[in-house]
Amino acid sequence: MTHQEHIELVRQVIDGKCIPLLESKGYEYSRAGDVNDDTLANFKRIAATTGVHPLVVWFTYTQKHMAAIATYVRNTAAGKEYKKSEPIEGRFVDAVN
Hints:
Largest sheet: none
Shape: globular
Strand content: under 5%
Structural class: mainly alpha
């Protein structure tokens, strides 16, 4: 794969999968319609509730997706079949968003 092909593949995934998900789920999480309409409101609310910095909340959510990806990689490399709650592609898209 050339560098340009890689860029195009990433662009297709971002534009075709990540952006639509960000537009739908991100809007819900931001308390759409609120006066502030803050896209990071979900992180800030949970941070305030738990007494941690919003980046800690973001990191925790991201690690959840990365743990699922790591399980997929480990099992695939070992040739093990296992039940997945969603396709691995969805985990990558969630991790990007």
